[in-house]
Amino acid sequence: MATRINRTIELLAEDQPVYYTGEHVGHVLTYAQGKEDAATWADYFNVGMEHGAFDMAGLDEYLRGLVAGGRRAADTGRRR
Questions:
Q1: Half-sphere exposure of 58 (CA within 13 A, CB side)
Q2: Which phi and psi angles does 21 have, rounded to 5°?
Q3: Which pLDDT score is estimated for 73?
Q4: What would the DSSP string read from start to end of the chain?
Q5: Can you tell me the distance from the alpha carbon of 71 to that of 39, in angstroms, rounded to the nearest whole number?
Q6: Nearest by Cα to 27 from 8, 7, 55, 6
Q7: d(Cα 80, Cα 64) in Å, to the nearest integer?
């Protein structure tokens, strides 16, 4: 059972590797993209805003989509 919202912290605490996806510049920051990305294989996303657009409203929509997409099945019992 997860003890943290951030699964990556749990994996690192267990000396497990973590994997990410995403570009260092730009990401589609929409509710629909968040829902789609919620089913990804990756442990975390890189949403680059340093060299891309600083879009906090888009980030809010994207995160709402991730939450609506739910936890992926791979989160339960993975790499234990």
A1: 13
A2: -140, 160
A3: 47
A4: --SSS-HHHHHHHTT----EE--SS----SHHHHHHHTT-S-SEE----SSS---HHHHHHHHHHHHHH---GGGSSTT-
A5: 8
A6: 55
A7: 29
Both structure tokens of 14: 């267990």
Q: CB–CB of 72/39 below 8 Å?
A: yes
What are the sequence ranges of the domains in the chain? 22-71
Written as six digits, the tokens of 46 are 């890189």
Give the model confidence (pLDDT) of 17-53 as tens digits.
999 887 767 788 999 999 998 888 888 888 878 777 7
